[in-house]
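Issue 218. Parser rejects a valid record. Input:
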Amino acid sequence: MATTSNNSPDQLREDLDRLRGDISALSSSFQQLMGDAGEEGVARAKNAVRGAKAKVDAGSDALEGAIVQRPLVSMLVALVIGMVIGKLFERR
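Output the parser choked on:
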């Protein structure tokens, strides 16, 4: 804004109009930035969910493979785990 001692009303109006334009441009830029950040956040969240699902699927596939390869050992492990849990919750 000009700093002259004889600011006329017309000069003040021009300065205010320029200031309004600058504020409007700044507001538009901010809205665009926030929209972009929101979209990026959503994309990152989706990627994280996809990665977690892939790891869970891989873990369940590995467990299923171990059960299929050694069914007797798997049943014995399940029996022992069940007995331990039963003992932990047994009332005395």
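Fixed in the parser; the record now loads. The two ends are 85 Å apart (CA to CA).
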